[in-house]
Specification:
three-stranded antiparallel beta sheet; alpha+beta; 145 residues; 2 domains; single chain; three-stranded mixed beta sheet
């Protein structure tokens, strides 16, 4: 039986919401610490800062790609390349995260488009991060190259 794995991220915030700032760290992998502030979240992200929505997008795109890859292999059509982007929309003060657009472009030999679309949709519904985000509408735009 597989053992549970716990992964950790850490945030440190200084000051109030509007003028404060903080850092977000990838604790488990120790791959980095990234600055963040309200402007990066509510106005426009700038190079060198991140937001919770960007991190959610990265988590969903990664999880979806892994899930889709496994499902394609089980289908007998392993992928050459799966490229996924999750665009997370945040509306400050008006509902928070209001939607996520998952965009996928994959190169897969020997698969019909109907099977590709079916498996792409099933991967969106079954990936663990999608399940964790059930309170938000996730749309899918999948393209077979």
């Amino acid at each position: 039986m597989p053992r549970p794995i716990t992964s950790s991220g850490k945030a440190v915030w200084n000051g109030d919401l509007q003028s404060g700032s903080g850092t977000t760290s990838l604790e488990t992998s120790q791959l980095g610490t990234f600055p963040t502030h309200w402007k990066a979240r509510a106005e426009e992200s700038e190079q060198g800062t991140t937001s919770p929505e960007e991190l959610i997008g990265a988590a969903l795109a990664t999880c979806y790609s892994m899930q889709f890859s496994n499902m394609l292999a089980e289908n007998g059509t392993p992928p050459t390349t799966i490229e996924s982007t999750a665009n997370v929309t945040f509306n400050a003060g008006e509902g928070g995260i209001t939607g996520i657009e998952l965009v996928n472009n994959s190169t897969i030999e020997g698969i019909e488009d109907a099977d590709f679309q079916r498996l792409a949709a099933e991967a969106k519904e079954s990936c663990p991060v999608s399940k964790a985000l059930q309170g938000v509408e996730i749309t899918l735009n999948a393209t077979l190259s």
